[in-house]
Amino acid sequence: MTIYDIAEKAGVSITTVSRVLNGKENVNAKTRAHILAVLEECGYTPNRLAQGLASKATKTIGVMAVDIRDIHHSTIAYQVEQTLSTLGYSSILCNFSGNKNRLPDYLDMLFSRQVDGFIFIGSVFAGDFCRGELASRLDGSKPTVFINGTPSLPGAYCVIEQEEDAMKRAVEYLYHQCDRRHIAFVGMGDTASERSKRKGYEAAVDSLGLTAHTAITAQSLAGGESAVSSLLDTHPSLDALVFTDDITACGGVRRLLQIGRSVPGDIAVVGFNNSLYSEICIPSLTSIDNRMYETGKIAAGILADALEGREPEAVVSVGCQLVIRDSTGIRI
Amino acid sequence: MTIYDIAEKAGVSITTVSRVLNGKENVNAKTRAHILAVLEECGYTPNRLAQGLASKATKTIGVMAVDIRDIHHSTIAYQVEQTLSTLGYSSILCNFSGNKNRLPDYLDMLFSRQVDGFIFIGSVFAGDFCRGELASRLDGSKPTVFINGTPSLPGAYCVIEQEEDAMKRAVEYLYHQCDRRHIAFVGMGDTASERSKRKGYEAAVDSLGLTAHTAITAQSLAGGESAVSSLLDTHPSLDALVFTDDITACGGVRRLLQIGRSVPGDIAVVGFNNSLYSEICIPSLTSIDNRMYETGKIAAGILADALEGREPEAVVSVGCQLVIRDSTGIRI
DNA sequence: CTGAAAGCGCTTACAG
DNA sequence: CTGAAAGCGCTTACAG
Questions:
Q1: Is B183 helix (H, G, I), strand (E, B) or coil?
Q2: Residue A196, CA distances (Å) to A163, A244, B96 in order
Q3: Is the shortest CB-to-strand distance from B82 to strand D under 7 Å?
Q4: What's the CA gap between B153 and A130, in Å, rounded?
Q5: Closest CA to B68 of A121, A39, A139
Q6: pLDDT band of A189, cuts 50, 70, 90
Q7: Separation of alpha carbons A99 and B281, rounded Å
Q8: A203, containing H or E segment
Q9: Which of A231, B198, B301, B320 has a 20 to 30 Å separation from B294 between CA atoms?
Q10: How far is B35 from B12, CA to CA, in rounded Å?
Q11: Rounded to the nearest 5 degrees, what angle is found at the Cα of B14, between the Cα atoms of B13 and B19?
Q12: For B300-311, how does the pLDDT look when each residue is reduced to its tens digit (9 = 90+)?
């Protein structure tokens, strides 16, 4: 079933059929109605490959995630896909998985499929780690949105979760509301996102006149456990810990309980992402909600705006919120 | 940069360029080498839309997941995407989100994009709920793999996690190794997957001469909490609970601890999926590993086999494993 | 081993 | 308001 079949059945040219298919105005009302009826009757769906080839637009977006097994990325990817789909775009999903060597192949693939634009989910894409692989291929010819990173790429759009500010406020909350004075930071490596969280921590600690204590560990339960052990070895007087990830914070809580420290009685704990993990942890984790739904939705909207000539803002910030649960509170 | 440019630069016809692009044998070795050099020099990538239009194969797969925010689905979707990508296929990802009405639009979209085949992740797609929407559109003309469901669809392939057997063995383990005699089942609705888990539970209870106690609840922490409350209200002597999902089991554990029951001292708990949630729970959850990686990989492999004429098995089973953690053990 | 030509199913100036 | 024709960038019989 092609546009030729429809044209023949309707007794018009394919040009006219194409016009009503694309909602052009210059078609006689009766002709349109008739063609619409034939279309309906035949259950015709146009071949998107042919449309794309002829029109130079595929309504397809390349969505590059770090790894959708990570709840943070899967939630954003989910919202990106749902929003794009509502706006008439399809998503080709790629999982980068930290393997820089795959990036060129993925990008070639997306270009060969003539995607209209790109969305990168994860701050790693905006950092030095990927710069070489991305810069050589992304020349700014197609709209590109980075989530949680501001790359030095011509014409790129960015959606930034305000993690620095959120981390700062979390530390201030621990100080003012929970009466903590020895607050350590547990981070997870060297992405842009990690750096801004750390910056927020340091800013708060500075302005409050406290001393900074920092540990870097793996993003996992075991990572949280070992970070807690080594931090308490060197700084036994710590009374609060802020983590840049919920799962790792769960590991931290587990180790604290194992060694007989109460949470939050002895030590308050703050996680990050406000994921289901923060609710499952006992005591449940106070955590920073980085508004993943908002973020995904906004990113998809920006891309559609750019593609449809509506000129969106180049950089959009999404505010984060501290969600208070049981792992923080007054010291005992 | 098109195939014409390459042909001109190499001094041959586009037919010959196309031949070397597609690895056909009937090309002179020298000609091939020369064309390959030109190709390399120009960094040419063929337009997949044009290829697809001409060849009737797009190397694109429609991947329909229930919801990739669910760790079970995102893990399978991840593995599906990675495997397909290795095999040269791209994935268009769709999130069904339980909204049956979206299914027709998604399928139309995938057909209009001329996908070569489909993978459905989640037993709901094989059930009555979706039958109407799927049966009318999926006529068996394109290879289709269902994960965790056996639909009545002509020519569909199935990858089935052996959940029934796993659930049966979990109950037997509770009976023999943990000395439990009052074992209840907490399920989450009426999908094929849920039914087979329940069947396994009932088979075990039957053969052990025990009484079946069943609760159906929502798949969430709150669902687990309320299921535990209502089960213990009516059957205070319960000494073990098997859940069909880890998150809900976490909720169950939380409620048990709240009302002063020890886990596993008073009541043993078994979860399902062997997700990170089972490790985060305190006590950590004994859980059934349904081998999501295997499953995703096998499903992608089957689809590629079918597309490339290798005639895979119609139904492949993936064995599950009981992973013992702290939430089960001898009664106190 | 190589190439001219038709065809895949659309869109889009252009002419009327 | 409508249509004939060219073109999008490939593949694939077919002929040589």
A1: strand
A2: 6, 10, 35
A3: no
A4: 44
A5: A121
A6: confident
A7: 31
A8: helix A192-208
A9: B198
A10: 9
A11: 105
A12: 999 999 999 999
Encoding tokens for residue A265? Answer: 């009685």
| Residues whose CB is less than 8 angstroms from the CB of residue B197 and which lie 6 or more positions away in sequence, other chains included | B163, B164, B167, B185, B187, B244, B272
- The string of pLDDT tens digits covering residues A37-57 is 999 999 999 999 999 999 999
Q: On chain D, which bases lie within 7 A of the protein's CB atoms?
A: 1-5, 7-13
Q: Phi then psi for B267, rounded to 5 degrees?
A: -135, 125
Q: What's the count of helices (H) and strands (E) in chain A, helices before strands?
A: 13, 12
For residues A15-27, average pLDDT: 94
Q: What share of chain B is helix, strand, coil (3-state, %, to 5)?
A: 45, 15, 35
Q: Count Cβ atoms below 10 Å from residue B98 Cβ, excluding itself.
A: 11
What's the rounded Cα separation, in Å, for the pair B154 and A156?
A: 47
Given the DSSP bridges, would you call strands B321-323 and B286-289 parallel, antiparallel or unpaired? Answer: antiparallel
CB < 8 Å to A74, chain B = 68-69, 71, 74
Calpha distance B253→B255 (Å, rounded): 5
> What's the confidence (pLDDT) of residue B103?
93
On the question of pLDDT at B332 being above 80, the answer is no
A330 has a pLDDT exceeding 90: no
Distance (Å, whole) CA A47 – CA B50: 12
Cα A308 to Cα A300: distance, rounded to the nearest angstrom? 12
Q: Give whole-number Cα distances, A90 to A52, B105, B118, B189, in Å.
A: 13, 11, 15, 30
Q: How far apart are the first and last CA of chain A?
A: 74
DSSP 8-state code for residue A212: P
Token duo for residue A145: 């949105």
Amino acid present at A55:
S
* Length of chain B measured in residues: 332
Average predicted confidence (pLDDT) for chain A: 94
Q: How far is CA A206 from CA A212, A213, B155, B172, B209, in A?
A: 8, 12, 66, 58, 67
Q: Provide, as residue numbers in chain A, all residues whose Cβ is less than 8 Å from the Cβ of B252.
A: none
Residues 111-140 of B with CB under 8 A from A: 111-114
> Cβ A49–B114 below 8 Å, yes or no?
yes
pTM value is 0.93
Whether residue B122 contacts residue B147, with contact meaning beta carbons closer than 8 Å, is answered with yes
User: Residues A65-76: what's their mean pLDDT?
Assistant: 94
Q: At A184, phi and psi to the nearest 5?
A: -105, 155
More confident position, B297 or B329: B297
Helix (H, G, I), strand (E, B) or coil at A105: helix
